[in-house]
Amino acid sequence: MATYRKTDAHAWAREHLTGCSAVTIPSYSADLKRLNEGGIRHDIELAIKFGFRYTLLCSEVAITPEENAQFTAWARETAGNRLGLFFHAAFGTLAENIEAVKLAEKAGADIVLLSYPPQFWPTTEQEIYDYTKTFCDATDLAVMLFPIPLWGFERVHPAGMQVELVRRLLNDCPNIVAIKSEQGFPLPAGICEMYHHFRDDVVISCPIEGDAIPLMSLMKLQFSGTSNTAWMGDYYPKAFEMARSGRWEEAMALYWSVNPARNANGAAAQSYAGGTGVLNRTMWKYQDWLAGFNGGPLRAPAMRVPDRLMKTLRQGLAASGLPVTSDPDSAFITGRFPC
Questions:
Q1: Distance between CA 88 and CA 103 in Å, rounded?
Q2: Which is an annotated Pfam family here (predicted)?
Q3: Could you give the CA distance from residue 73 to residue 255 in angstroms, rounded to a whole number?
């Protein structure tokens, strides 16, 4: 259960939604029939060790609402009050997302990242508004709005979710406390526009670390997430806190030191993201495995990771001086805590 009332969600977010968020992809047994408790608990502990303040419990991986609640319960039990937990509203329908969030609330989730299902195909802003408001009304948790081209809302407006729609949602959904601002990705237009209009109303998150640290010379950002940064170890929480506390030059020195890893990640993502609109969670799990997380198999349908990209990602970490496992890539699919 959340530690705040729905009516106090904004105040809670201003005080507590700080630092960086990792993404935790659930681990499964070798036969893929059940969750892997040992792998999940290990990954939560390592995210805390690296300095992350939150993690997204990723549900975009063929997991049921009931399994997601168990995933959440193990994460909460492991983390205690050391790590905030995002419920990932990425299930197949609005009704299923509402079912899943109610279970996650009881299991210990703190806040929601609101996604939109592939089957949701709006042609008007009213449809986007209705989906969003219906979900927000159904949960007592704080909600992070997530505008990004992945949803295909650009058929409605070039920004996907334009300023007027966001303003309407903020006015009518009092538990929307933050915006993960990626309109127009990979350009920074979304974060700039959302920050300009809404920084006094809600927490504005720039989840792209390659943008966030430079932009913090101009913007006061208190939170960054959720995104694929835990594979770089403790670099991002450390650099983000430096920039946030007035040590921006030091943060930029760290920023440039990890540029080989950043470039490797960009090259790998460009190999699939633009054409599919779907994130390769197997690749994200492999990247985390390189940094010491559990790894292990994912349920079908799951994208593959070509050997050439595995080599590129591993070399990027090594060239950046970041920790990287010496285990062979063949060990990834088994995982560090097989069951």
A1: 12
A2: DHDPS
A3: 35
Q: Would you kindly state where each structural domain of the chain is located, as residue ranges?
A: 6-245
Domain 6-245 class? Answer: alpha beta
Average pLDDT over residues 191-215: 97
What are the φ/ψ torsions at residue 312 (nearest 5 degrees)? -60, -45
The CA distance from 322 to 50, in Å, is 12
pLDDT digit string, tens, across residues 134-183? 999 999 999 999 999 999 999 999 999 999 999 999 999 999 999 999 99
Contact between 303 and 283 (Cβ < 8 Å): yes
Place of tokens 């909600």: 143
Query: At CB < 8 A and 24+ separation, what contacts does 211-217 make?
Result: 212/240, 212/243, 213/239, 213/240, 213/243, 213/248, 213/251, 213/252, 213/255, 214/252, 214/255, 215/188, 215/191, 216/240, 216/243, 216/244, 216/248, 216/251, 217/243, 217/248
Residue 276 has pLDDT above 70, yes or no: no
Q: Cα(185)–Cα(285) distance, rounded to whole angstroms?
A: 22
- pLDDT at res. 275: 55
Token pair 């504005």 in the structure block, residue: 204
Q: Which helix (H) or strand (E) holds 82?
A: none
